[in-house]
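LOG
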Amino acid sequence: MGKGGIGLPDNPARQDSCKTMQTLNKDALTLCIAGNLNIDLMISGVPCLPGWGEEQFGTNRRSVAAGQAGYMGMASSNLGMSVSIIGAVGDDLDGQTICDKLRDSNIDCSGISTIPDVATGLTIAIIREDGERCFVSEAGASAHFSLQHIESSWPLVEGSRFFAVVGLFNTPGLTFNDAKACLLKARQHGIVTVFDPGWDSTGWSQSTCKELIDLLTHVDLFLPNEDEAQAITGLTDIEKSLDFFSAAGVGTTIIKRGSKGAIARRGGQTFTSDARHVPNANAVGAGDVYDAALVSALARGIDFSSAMQFAARSAEYYVGRHDDRFPSLTDITPT
């Protein structure tokens, strides 16, 4: 990608969208995120998972406003993006806590609906001593999040240069067809579309994978992690997974690989970025911070390879800290 680009793929099928986008009178540093919001209760330093009827102890706990939309939004705002979020919380203290935290991060919360008589979603994250994690979640209000919520807040999408749909498996009321319609509509308005689906706790059925693959033709930046990419494609060879997603019509695919860095395919070229070891890492939310930093870098016209490195350094900064975790532009120097 040239220095002035913002991440759309250089292939003929997408040239009209590129030209349309360049004529829009929009601030490049604007991002609207549609996705799940919840409280993360994290217990770290757990040596191993207990069996049924057993107990294990961790060494630390914390409760934070989160969800893929929350993490990505706060990280993006800290990196200088103008951010709005479309999502749902419950009519409870947790929901208020999330909205207060997002507003404190200068995020437009006008697209966040409060669902009466429903609890805000909760995820319990168990973090191993080496930073690896697993989750148990209750979707709560996010289960009621639907296409109607996005449509009623469409001016937020239309006023942004980037539109991200994240955590789709944590918002079961928003179907693949709904997400596909939103991504298509956004692209028709010249908006750069971003998609990070998250993990399918029901087991990645053949029909689920097919529906997900069908919407990828409307995605400019696809951001799965390695486990998700393998589950979707059924392939263990990561280069073949990149080939698969390119054939499905994705503009740019970046597969996040944790401690192994990241690998991407864009315009027929393959890019990689490294990952540096971070002791005592807490990786909960790291992929969302990577997404945020990548979009932020591309929005500023940073070349694609350097944007990947910027995203990697931002994620490393985040996982290595316990407080004030989201990096700012002064914390990370683009390479």
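LOG (cont.) second protein
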Amino acid sequence: MKSVQLVNVPRGKADTQVYMQSFCQSWVTNGGDYVSRPQILRKKWFKNMVKGISLTGVHWGNSSDAYLVCSRGQHLLKSCLPFNFKGEIIPMLWDCWPYTWKSLEHDLRLLNVKLCFMTASDVIDRFSKIFPDTKFVHIPEGLDMSDYVPGLPLSERNIDVYEIGRKYPAYHQKLIEAGLDKKCSFIYLNKKPDGKTFIFDTFEKYRNALCNSKITVSFPASVTDAVNTSVETLTMRYWESMLSRCVIVGYCPKELYNLLGYNPVVEADISHAAAQLEEILSNISSYQSLVDRNREVALKNAAWDYRIEFIFKVLEQSGYSVHS
């Protein structure tokens, strides 16, 4: 039986994005074995050298070792370094958008992947046909629920509208043209106009703004980006809003609906975007029961802990050991 170790992505105090970190933290908390990434990989020259060797297809890993590697779709090979020389790679993949498919297919083939976890079910459908001998398993995005708090009742919050997640310029422009940003307390996305600097320089500040928001606006990439229409998937932004008891306005991904059995999102009226938000704000207390329900349901469905238990079972059933 092969021993599986997670290549840990530790969480730092300055981190503003924690999706992989919280996954790793849950793995470790639940008793999974793990290893740390060598510090020398921080040196660009060394990383480029190792990657170059990897691209030749040379691998000399111990067949008794396996490594669970967290990565975005377009960076799989880079994320595996240097563990692809030491044993079998089992990817845990986020952000497998269509523009990543060519490089991802190349990396999966080069690494001879036999088992792969992905957060997007639509992508699994596609890659299962390309790699019939590889087992692909859907793992819906989750989070560490201890990171989020229920906040005050909606009527007592200070931020009216917070557009989080992916940019949807067509929708945002309608709000601006109607002067909504002048009429109420309004935050647009998580980054400043330069597109690089985060509005909140720590995760804690972001969390505090979220639980002080009445409405959060969220659309999946399949709606906001024409090139991603074939991949409709659940992201952690929905869980964050549900756990923070925000009224979510936007679009509900089918993965979220199928998981919960109901739609926790107020579907956006694109033609009357600003008017819809103003109507909700003027009757915000009437949505308190919805956000209370959404939080209770999220508490039972959003945690990485539930998914880690499932991953352990899949690994064990596939002939791997996750505990020393």
